[in-house]
Amino acid sequence: MATIRSADMDFPGRKPQTLTRSRARWAIVGLFLALAAMAVLAVGTASASAPTGSGPVISAAPAGVMDAAPSASPSPRASATAEPQPLTPAAPGADPASLIGAAFTPIFQGLFLLLIELYSLTGNIVVAIVLMTLLIRLVMVRLSAKQIVSQKRMQMLAPELRDLTKELNRRYKGDRVAIQKATQEFYKERGVSPTAGCLPTVLQMGMLFPMYWVIRDGLTNFDPSAMFRVFGINLVPSIHCPVAVNGVVDKAVPCINTVVFGINVGQPQVLFNVPLVVFTLGVSVLAVSAGILQFFQSRMLMPPAAENDAQASSQRTMMVIFPFFSVIYGGWLPAGLFVYWITTSLFSIAQQFLIVGWGSMFPLFGWNPGFARNHTPRFPVTMPDPVTSGNAGKSLAATRLQPEERWAAAASTVRPNTHKRTSRRGRRR
After folding, report:
1. Which residues pair with 245 in a beta bridge?
2. What is the per-residue pLDDT for 323?
3. Cα–Cα distance between 285 and 290 in angstroms, integer?
4. Kind plus residue range of the DSSP H or E element containing 424
5. CB under 8 Å to 336, separation ≥6 — which residues?
6. What is the per-residue pLDDT across 108-156, written as a single tens digit (0 to 9) for each?
7. Considering the entire predicted model, what is its pTM?
8. Residue 284 near residue 270, CB atoms below 8 Å
9. DSSP result, 76-118
């Protein structure tokens, strides 16, 4: 009984299902806090750059991109009503904020120059954002392909890994260090790295913040000409800023034309507002479209449903809910950022289709079309050949006991009862 019980335990006294649910709850809490932090950042930066009067929202410069502030720092209310200033690269100063701003200025300036160069060639800011997004994704195509392959292989390996974890818990009696070491050897043996998909995800999420500043602050400034120069050379000579009418510069009008089909990509695009208990939800068509595409992108790589697998169920739930958080940001983030988001999702969906096919897309709400059945992707994911090491040439997976072998081993440890009583006579009451 003790042997069988230890095989069903991750740690002494805690069943694996309970432990997995606990980890899933902490993951969901961490995700919620990250989204809340991003929402606070969006609201705070938007409110700091919004003037008190009517008219378009024009920000002087992104956080950390303006020159060092004067000795007397203005209050948030004074900054909101201050006259717009030209957009200039940050200069390193004594305070940490200016140092951080100067460190991130090359990233901001590089993306801004790429966007403006494409704008000067196409004359359309939406087309420029789409082309810039495609160029960025083409540079990262190999990393994102490795991420998709790694995620798919982890899903293919999940049933075997669950059985192996039970066997390791039985074998090492809850020794966490030994179990973790054996699990890493198993990953190495199977040629799978659980962390292979982390770097592309971090890079893609990290690109959102500089893109946010480029679109919100770079495109809405009346004079970003200082950002066009690198080592004194103007890299965008075809665009002249600021724009003067009759010799007068209107600082409320951005130098770059950001209005396409009546939508200002430098500002949030809101059709109508829905008042909620905590905040007012601005409904944006671009944000809803981005959420739907992210839902399709996540569903293609969703782990298959498995009985009594709380971890897979939590992953499926998070991959369904997470994409629709972008709908909440529709009233705060600029429309151009959702153009970037939509283009990124379309590129990812096409790349995933070539590697995993339709994946777990269907059945979708009970719909299982014929074209998705038995579909073979163009570049199917295969598991690498196992690498045998140790245990007299046997792999770690090969040394795992099968269920019938575990029952036989457990039965061999049970001592037979040779003192059987045939009656109740003589039993002490």
Report:
1. 248
2. 81
3. 9
4. none
5. 125, 126, 129, 215, 219, 258, 265, 266
6. 999 999 999 999 999 999 999 999 999 999 999 998 999 999 989 998 9
7. 0.73
8. yes
9. HHHHHHSPP---------SSHHHHHHHHHHHHHHHHHHHHHHH
